[in-house]
Structure formats: structure tokens, C-alpha cells
Design goal:
Helix content: 40-55%
Number of strands: 6
Strand content: 5-15%
Mean pLDDT: 81
Order of helices and strands: EHEEHEHEHHEHHHH
Amino acid sequence: MSSKMDFGDAQHLSELRIVLMGSYGVGKSSSGNTILGREEFDLKRSAQCARRHGEVADRHITVIEAPGWWKNFTVERSPELLKQEIVLSVSLCPHVVLLIMPLGALKKNERKALQGHLNLLSERVWSHTIVLFTNGDLLSDTPIEQYIECEKHLQWLVDKCGNRYHVLNNRNRSDHTQVKELLEKIEETVAENNGCHFEIDRKILQEVEERKRAQEERAKERMKMMQKRRENIRSQMMRGVEKSDTWSVGSSGYSSFGSGTASRSDSPFSFVDSSHNQKRCNSMGVPSPLMSGDKRSDAMSVRNSACSSNMISEEEDSS
């Protein structure tokens, strides 16, 4: 759609729904922010559609940004989730699809990739599509038409979209004229389609929604399994700590027995009555573990002397 087009027949619409589509990194988020006149879209890559609203030039605008595909990847190589999101991006029946293209040569493999991804929405989508060239500041004084004529794959793309195109300079958002002209071209596209918005086959949309719900349910189940596994690991770790504490208590009881200074009722080595131990040790001539160091030494000396006397007496008897 060249600038010479007459917009007089286009009906002014109070509401417009726009889908931004294109490969990864072409400027979809920046273009959405330029259209809405403020920072609404996050410039970080997202795997899901993003929807924003705003009032622009007496119109209520809804902008949906579809996730981008890798420009060298055919549709067959793209993840299933990406293809689902592209289909779901048109679930609100948009008035137009803006195919975002940075100024530069369109290579054959890139052309194949964008054609395959747009065809996910059926061949009819092309009649509702406008090519939106970004990096308009690089054109300088060169007309966009001259630029298109120099690139055969761009010629193919513009022809595929019914000669509908527009240039946007995202570095100069103060120029509201470029957005106003874009909205007029969108209304012209709606008029060319007899006032109809784009509507995808409901059966295709329903199948995609069902597949997405099934994937989300599987993801939830997987998350529950992971949480349960983590809880089991934590429980095992806690039991290990409790066993370690129990062993420390048992060791403390054993040490108390060795020192002869404590008696724990819960220890497997608890002492019997200490006076009984004392009497038993005295009868055997063995120093009691409850004796002080000096008493134990005296007891040992007495015992050794007794043993020596017994040995002398035995020798005298034998002689």
C-alpha cells in the first residue's frame, strides 16, 4: 500500500485489534510501544503471546504480540509451543496482522520460514496482512518503493500482502504522523476485506487450545511429582539428622559410665547401686572406680602386698 493510496473510503473505526508477527529480534515489542505511544511491551523474549491496550488517535487499540520464530528455521523445526502461540495470537479475531520486517535483504530461507509460519493461520491471512518495515531511520532520503524494487524476495512479500506496507521509525516516537498513517492503512485493509476482521477456522483453534490445555496439565503433574520428590528428600535428610542426634545421646551415656560420675536412667549402661559396687570391690581387693586417686593407689598397694605374702608362705610350706 503506497503513500499515494486514497484513504477517503476507509471507515474510521473506534476499536482496532492488531497482531504483531515476525521472526525473533525484528522489533515487534518496539513497534507495539511506538503504536501505543508508551512502554507497554517488555523487550525481553517471551514464549507466549502478550496483549496490551491503549487509546490512540481516538481509537481503542488492542495490540497482541506473538512470539517470534528463528528466522532460519522452517516451521517444521519450530517448537510445538511456538506454533500453538502463533495460532492463539489471532483468537481475538484481529482486524490486521502486521508482519514486522527490519530493513535489509530478505534471504530465501528467511522467506520460506515466514511463509510457513504465517500459513499456520491459513492462506487467507495474507489478505489481512500489512508488511511493517522497521528501522525507517536507515532509509534517509531513499523512498521505500525504490528499496523494495532492489530486493526480489521483498517484492514477493509485498505482492503476497496485496501491496500493503508501511515504514516505522521506532527511534522517533514523537512523530505521531507515522502511527496515524499506519492506523489509516489498517482501516483501509479492513475496508478491502468488506469490513471483516480475520477469523481463523474455529476447529483449528479448538484443537490447538485442547493440545495446550493437555500440555499444561502434564506440566502441572510433573511439577507435583518434583515437589513430592523434594519433600521425600527433605524428610530423609531430617530422619538422618535425628539418627545422628540419637547416637550422640548414646555416646554421652557411655562416657558417663566411663567416668563413673553419672547414671542415666535411659542409658543402656546405667549403674547399679554404688554402695554395692564399693563393697564388692573391697571384698575382692580391687579398687573401686568410685574411689579417689589416692585411695585407689593405697588399695592396689595392699593387694600387691597380700599377693607377695601368699607367694612367700607357699614357698616356705613347700620347703
